[in-house]
Amino acid sequence: MQKITCDVLVIGAGPAGLAASIAAKQEGAEKVLIVERDESIGGILQQCIHPGFGLSYFEEELTGPEYYARFADKALELGVEVLLNTMVLDIGDTGVVCMSSKDGLSIIEAGSVVLAMGCRERTRFQLTIPGSRPSGVFTAGTAQRLMNRENAMVGRRVVILGSGDIGMIMARRITLEGAEVIAVVELNDYLAGLTRNKVQCLDDFEIPLLMKHTVTDIKGKKRVESVTVCEVDAENIPIPETAVEYPCDTLLLSVGLIPENELTHKAEIEISPITNGPVVNQYMQTSREDVFACGNVVHVNDLVDNVSLESERAGQCAAKYALGRLKKAEDVIQVQPGRNVRYICPQEIVNSGDGGEINLYFRVTGPEEKVRILVKTGDKVIVQKRALRVNPGEMEHIRFDAKEITSPDLTVEVMKEAI
Amino acid sequence: MKTDVVVIGAGAVGCAIARELSKYELDITVVEKNEDIGGDASKSNSAIIHTGYDASPGSLESELVVAANPMYDKIVRDLDVHFEPVGAILPAITDEQLEQLPAIKDKAMRNRVYDVEYLTREDVLRMEPEINPEVRAALYIPRESIIDPFVLVQAYAENAYANGVHFLLSTKVTDIRTGDGCVQSVITTGGEIETKWVINAAALYCDEIAGMVGKRCYDVVPRRGQFYILDKNTSCKVKHIVLPIPTKTTKGRLMCPTVHGNMLIGPTAEDLDDKSATETTADGLESIRIDVEKLVPRVNWRDAITQYSGLRPNRVPEGLHVDTYEDLNGYINLSGVRSTGLTLSVAMGKYVAQLMISLGMNAPFKKNFVEKRKGITRFADLSVEQQASLIEKQPLYGNIVCRCETVTEQEILDAIHRPLGARSVDAVKRRVRAGTGRCQAGFCTPKVIEILARELKMPASEIMKNEKGSYYVVGDMR
Amino acid sequence: MEKIVICTVCPIGCNITVREENNELIIAGNQCKRGLTFATDEYLHPVRILTTTVKVHGGDQILVPVRSAEPLPKELLFSAMELIRELVVDAPVNRGDVLVNNILDTGIDIVATGEIKC
Questions:
Q1: Are strands C15-21 and C2-6 parallel, antiparallel or unpaired?
Q2: Looking at the domain that runs over A329-419, which CATH code has it been given?
Q3: Model pTM?
Q4: ipTM of the predicted structure?
Q5: Which terminal residue of chain C, N or C, has fewer Cβ atoms less than 10 Å from its own Cβ?
Q6: Fold held by B1-82+147-218+317-375
Q7: B411 φ, ψ to 5°?
Q8: Is any Cβ of chain B less than 8 angstroms from the Cβ of A141?
């Protein structure tokens, strides 16, 4: 069993881990090591061959592989080390246990750890969709992996449940490969993913989008043979009289992502019940002071550009911590979600008195138009901004300086504009 | 083809019979219509080894279940099967249920299940804090146990195979030829098999098999049971099997741990007319939630990771029968093996062997019967030191394929290459748990398909979820 | 004839209406100049970046992801796909390698976005 030491250990070589590792190096950490379970760098972006990445970070429109390549090149240039085909089993008190077939079991002693494991997909069973259990039911990301990395065609006549980005992207992908996407079915009356994707993936190909509908049954003895789709009422309960059976051979599910919190859970790090990711402060530091986190493992993002920014913060602070330069997290303020705010990340702010830019990312509970976003400390409004449209599927961002915080009461709320 | 004994059905009972008979100098062939061993009901049940406390006293079922339960201690050691005698609690929540406790205990004793105890409300809540606080009292049945039902059947079969039993999978019996008052041969989709003995362990289809020899005096009506499985980390857990006390309106639903650490909840009881209706239904699943919340109010349904259903082979008219016929030598008909089939399997093997001896089967014992079977090493259960040394010897233990359940590539290879090995994704799942975790194979499916395709030297488009036609991919994209 | 174009230049996603009147385009709803350009282009000659995969021989992966270097005319997407589907390239492939030169006479190349080693 070999022992490895490093200053900052990053778990995951996807966009979050890569950005964190670069920032850690730039902050002065000497040995920065990434442990990645896949056989190559890039994480989920390896299978995201479509464009839409980097619009704000690079002000260019890049595909997934092009986006991660920029970070991978920089990381390797700076001397970040990467262990591929290596899976972390546990973040213990004595060290991080990981294993690979090449090196066997290893214990890594790190000054700090950055969790960047990304997320997994919600399944059909978590939605309790009844019916048979044939082959041909895939989560959209699994189908994407099969098509874009394994060269496998997943089906010929496809129904997609959920208007999440991955579902819409796959609708386009499957259509371009000559298969038929019969419909995209969305439970709510608002899009789960980005509007851009509705235009370029569904409207472009005249793929019907059935809002306020859901899949209520799956039929097929061996392979999917059909799915039943119903309209839903105001409470999202299916209306049986509206049932329509769509013959098909594939059902893709794009119904939500969940942070991969196995290791977080094992390490007994505090997990937010709303995001299912670790509770973090503005340093992206978790309830274990030597463990930081960034990317989809903290909360599910829509734009990798935001992930990169957040991850740079995490990497920088993880390096600071390893080098003994990070102020201890005392005087912690909870950031409270106010009206129409579902959750905010980071959940906590360390009020060190030094000031510094605070970036809050949050999602609204329900879609609204013409609103004002306010950050309040006590009754005082620190910062506010207008938004034409807010939607749970598109993450919002607001920033201010920490020295504006004058009370332990910090709230983010969304108010309707008075006409 | 020629054999001495044809066993129809490779479920728990068929495989247990085959294993027991393989102790004798007999040529034995098990014929199974599915592509993998494991039968139908044996693959989709509550994984409980019962005591027989609620059987019909004096019935054959009662005798076999009560005899079987203590046999498990040895058999699970010999065959390397995960088994835990966790015990069962029957909580009486309402007055109506409280009034039934004495009758249940009495029936248990008449079934020769003597170790049943009363529990006070304080006892119950101390043993199971999650049980409805309105519980009045309960019964405790210590030998109700849980087991890995898939591995039990695999173990019977692998051990039978090691002792010379032939298995014909994806082979359906279409007819049985008789003549001169004896069985002559079994006609299958894979050819005709001359045989002296035919044992009908076809469960769901045992009525159709019986019809082939003109002995169909009953029907099999599938009784569906739907189930939930909850995440290992769910907030509301039980340590024992929590069994419902039937009321006038419902038999109730149980909640119990599985040997893998999940919570299992169910089943429904729906009589159907379609022997392939293994769907789950919104109504059925809803009824489970309503019923179980009466016993364990804080069940966290959001932690459900899967739902499934199984079909109990319910005999009409009811009752477990092992029939032989004076006018048809060599034919043994098993019917009515229903909810206790998994449990009584080990005893049924002995029972049928003894029955055959009484009917003139006089093959001697094998001198070199291999009694033990070693299962697939479960990497996740080992200590860090054991894991380290295992990877050194066999590096593919260092490749995790199923992240949720920590299943390694080497375990999957073992599952594929051992006798009666896995040929489909579900077969891999039932042997080594890959795909049974919270992501329900979302992560490992591409890898398992790749490994199966590589090891079986088949294209990915021919790797099935279970039976032929359950393909994952339609072909190469490029 | 009025068309509603949802601008995809930035995440705001303005709903821009484009109307033709007297051989002129009347555009409303954009919040910036980029949106104006986008809506005009989208109305007159919509273009899309095409991304897909190409089979690779002799590499450490079987597929390389590719993109059109610039957005292609929307109406040519399926024809371009037909062409690209037949393609097989040999490893190694470097990011940015031109795999199809001037596809369908558009002046636009299909380039690799991933890297494949031998």
A1: antiparallel
A2: 2.60.40
A3: 0.94
A4: 0.94
A5: N
A6: FAD/NAD(P)-binding domain (3.50.50)
A7: -65, -40
A8: yes
